[in-house]
Sequence to fold (447 residues):
Amino acid sequence: MAIMVTVPVAYFQIEAWRGKRAWDAYIADLKAKGTWTDLDSLRPASVSDEQNFAMAPILQPFFLDPKDPDYWKKTDWLKLPDQPRNDIQSPANAFSGITDIQAWQKYLGTDDVLSEVNKLAPQLDAFRAASQRPSAVYPTWLNTDGFISTNLAKLLNLGQVMTLRVNAELAAGQNENAAQDLVANLRFGRLLAGGPTLTSALIGIAIIGEGTESLRMGLERSQWTDAQLHEIQDELRRADFIAWQRRGFIIAEWRMPSLTKKPLASIRWDEKDTLTSKIITFLDLQIPKGWWYQNLLVHDRYFQSLLPAFQPEAHYFDAEIARQAWDQWLQAYPASSPYTYWGKYTTVNLSSLALEGAIDQIQTDQTLAACALERYRLANGKFPEKLDALIPQFLAKVPTEVFIKGQPMQYERLGDNQYRLLSTSVDKAGKTSPVVWNLTVSPGAAR
Fold:
């Protein structure tokens, strides 16, 4: 009987020692190589609530814990018509259709979408006014209980409703209102991109990406003034998707339970009485702690091989490193074992996600250049022969390629009111393809 008890206890202790020893050695090696990142170093500097866009009365409730009754009470105003009309489904129920002005016109049976959106005008105007605050800092961070969750889906929805209003204002010829709302929403995207999760970064990038589509719409119709474009440019030049994604991936990497020095069962995953929490609690009591450390090694090695793909200081994303990171990780851990099962189960292919964010950066860079080109045209009556002519009055420097380090964005003037921007993209298989934006403006459009 004593042997039956002693052997399992000894086995658990040995496994715990082996796993912790392997993990400590791994962390020591990362620190020696300079690839260790302390999460606290990523924490944004604190600002006063009065200075912070996120803490304005109209926006602050969106960052409350969804279990707080005030969360639902104070964010319930964010609603668009969502019931079918004449057998037409509401665009509000389509993830990619919320900002589609034509879909709303068809659904509402009128070109006047702005009147419908402006039923939310008091709240959306307050949002725009709040965006003028000098700082935009995500109001929550990691704590000893894990992440204080927020309803990121509702934050994304808020950004989409603002984009819809921009599109509706452009359609109605309310260009100044559209410009102010667009700048407010770009700042909102930047606020979310600096949040404490990879998901918040991706949502911020998505909101900015939708904003650039609105901006392009106005450029084609020559609806923006020089002053408006200058302010929009000021926001776009801060849109560093490569840096934001890298930061988000680091947070996703190091927000692992071992770094809190707590057992898995003590981490706040969701509500304590959920099935997931019960399973984790049970497993945490049954499985040797050393196995968790071994699985953390499996999980983290993928992130460590992926992070070098992000090179924000060079405005560059190495697609080949990202692709190989996943392929080599799969080859390194072909079979599941107690030391790898959880690590493999919780690790997903994020290389493709990172690639999409880099492609979004190309589109934003092209839009930044397009703003400068339109400002030049407004001042000179035609587009320049070369992008260098924009410097320094309209553009600080010519944007460089995201996938070709140091290569300037390509530009071709096609006429006084026409041009082409050309960049290079890379797909999941490593094949290159052009990202072409042909723009013809309509100088006679009303401002």
